[in-house]
Write a structure and sequence with these properties.
single chain, mainly alpha, 13 helices
């Protein structure tokens, strides 16, 4: 392919070609795709193995690997392998949702602040500075410890399997948007003074149209990279909170609360803690590798 042909391609196609040449990023992407497929196939895998990740058996606590339980059983006699996959399903879903929600809020507020400036910019940025100055993990623990039934939520909703996941997504999104907002705002300040943006404003285009059509496409690239890296951060945050008992509520498994449940049995069956810890480690590392490769593909001059 000639230089002229490469230059004539669309930018996203050039990014894809550079990403495909990044071997470590592609290996990480394949690992994450395979992990996601396996985790979301846990129902069929459980049926094939003949085990139920929610079924307990106190007479089979901390058993070693067998034909039925290929990674052994946990403190309640439940199959570790299927619970590990189910926990991966929960942790990955939470992490992707939290990272995307955080980026969407931060991108929207960052564009508004950078484009309009003045009092709007000052209000949004001072709010961001205030949130950043707060002790993150302590604030998360404080918010997670609030009894939601006293805020008007019914007992049935609070004790539902998905409520703790949605609650944690909302909390992390509201506390994490300032980082994306500051990144987008700085790029918006430079983009809004370019000729094509000023020409669109001169032709009578609305502010919403200019922000959506001309500002957003030119500031979205670093946000994509930040979102990818934010997925790994969300997994670590959920794992830390669940390990401390303030994350996703059992019996819904996640890698974090599997670690929390296994800490009392470290001397009896340490592998019960090694397996979820290893999954967190490998997943976060591969996400970071993918984020680095994506950053190089989007901005090869950086």
């Amino acid at each position: 392919m000639s230089y002229v042909q490469i230059r004539s391609q669309k930018p996203w196609l050039q990014v894809a070609q550079r990403l495909l040449r990044h071997k470590l990023a592609m290996a990480s992407l394949l690992f994450l795709i395979g992990l996601t497929i396996v985790c979301f196939s846990v129902h069929f895998i459980g049926q094939w193995l003949g085990v139920d990740p929610y079924s307990d058996n106190l007479f089979s606590r901390f058993e070693g690997a067998t034909d039925a339980h290929i990674l052994g059983t946990d403190e309640l006699g439940r199959d570790i392998f299927t619970r590990l996959l189910l926990g991966g399903q929960v942790s990955l879903t939470f992490a992707f949702t939290a990272a995307i929600a955080t980026s969407m809020i931060g991108t929207t507020l960052g564009i508004i602040a950078g484009y309009h400036g003045g009092k709007i910019d000052a209000f949004i940025m001072r709010s961001a500075d205030f949130i950043i100055s707060l002790p993150g993990i302590m604030l998360l623990i404080l918010i997670q410890s609030i009894d939601m039934t006293k805020l008007g939520f019914s007992e049935e909703i609070v004790r539902s399997d998905n409520f703790s996941i949605y609650r944690l997504v909302v909390v992390i999104s509201l506390l994490g948007w300032p980082f994306a907002a500051r990144l987008v705002r700085s790029n918006t300040l430079s983009v809004k003074h370019r000729e094509y943006v000023q020409a669109a404003i001169g032709y009578g285009a609305s502010h919403w149209f200019v922000m959506r059509r001309h500002i957003l496409p030119n500031v979205i690239a670093p946000v994509i990279t930040a979102t990818t890296l934010g997925i790994g951060g969300a997994i670590l945050t959920e794992s830390a909170l669940s390990y401390l008992g303030f994350g996703i509520n059992p019996p819904t498994p996640s890698w974090g609360n599997m670690l929390q449940n296994a800490r009392e049995a470290m001397w009896h069956y340490p592998l019960a803690a090694v397996y979820p810890g290893a999954m967190v480690l490998f997943t976060v590392i591969t996400i970071n590798f993918l984020g680095d490769g994506l950053q190089e593909a989007i901005d090869p001059k950086a």
